[in-house]
Amino acid sequence: MKKFFKIKNKCGMDLSDTEELYHGLGHFAQKRFGFNKPPTLHLVSDMDNASKPLGKTAYYDPQGMAVTIYTDNRHTKDILRSLAHELVHHTQNENGMLNDTGYHGQGYAQKNKDLRQSEKEAYLKGNMCFRDWEDSLKQSKPTIYNEWRNIMSTKNWKNNELMENLTEKFGFKMDLGLLKEGKLPPGLQKYQDEQAKKKSGSEDEESEESKESEKDESSDSKAMPDHPDVDKDGDRKEPITKAQQDKEEMKESRIMKIIKNEIRKQLKERK
After folding, report:
1. Domain definitions of the chain by residue range
2. Coil, strand, or helix at residue 101?
3. C-alpha–C-alpha distance, residues 20 and 71, integer Å
4. What region, left, alpha or beta, does residue 149 occupy, with left being phi > 0 and alpha being psi -120 to 50 degrees?
5. What is the pTM (predicted TM-score) of this model?
6. Which of 22, 50, 91, 174 could form a disulfide with 72 if both were Cys (CB 3.0 to 4.6 A apart)?
């Protein structure tokens, strides 16, 4: 985009990703307001001013035909909105509307009716100019500006949205990269570790149970009664601990299957 302003960056702010926005707004405002010459744009830092809850945000110098904007602790969008406001004053200056000899001190917007009218116009036209420019930019480049320069690749954007959906559905975050590497996401890894501990405990219990069973068999030759079919596999001879372990493993397998199906579904919807 062709540069519009002569920008004097006195605050040291990094403009590499945002400078085109200043020039774009300038071109748009010139077409909207009809001023002839672009004002000089000063971006300044003043931490003392920034520390004040009602400190200055920007001002226009009619003699120097320059816009000065304080940038400390401000979002780019807020800075640009101030610029649009001051461009209305620049237009007023070119049209002779600011050649007022009345009161220009503190409270001028309340005490000087002509300057009060100028401020009304700047608030109304400036804000609407900024809003119209912003909306037109988002419509022309929705994938870039829809979230105000929160730039990311389409792939990363899709993956982030997928992760949000899976997090909402299953209650923990997952990394698709881990799945590709054959690793479990942290949430499932934690679940698997917990199951492994339970399994280890079950094996210890089963070992003790086997010892007791051997003792019983040596003293009593009667057949062991059927056990409850906990894992629903039809085998009533296996120990309850073994059946419980099988049941947990099947549950884990079902969870993995559900998650994999959900991931496939989300990925398919985003193609």
Report:
1. 6-101+109-145, 154-269
2. coil
3. 17
4. left
5. 0.53
6. 50
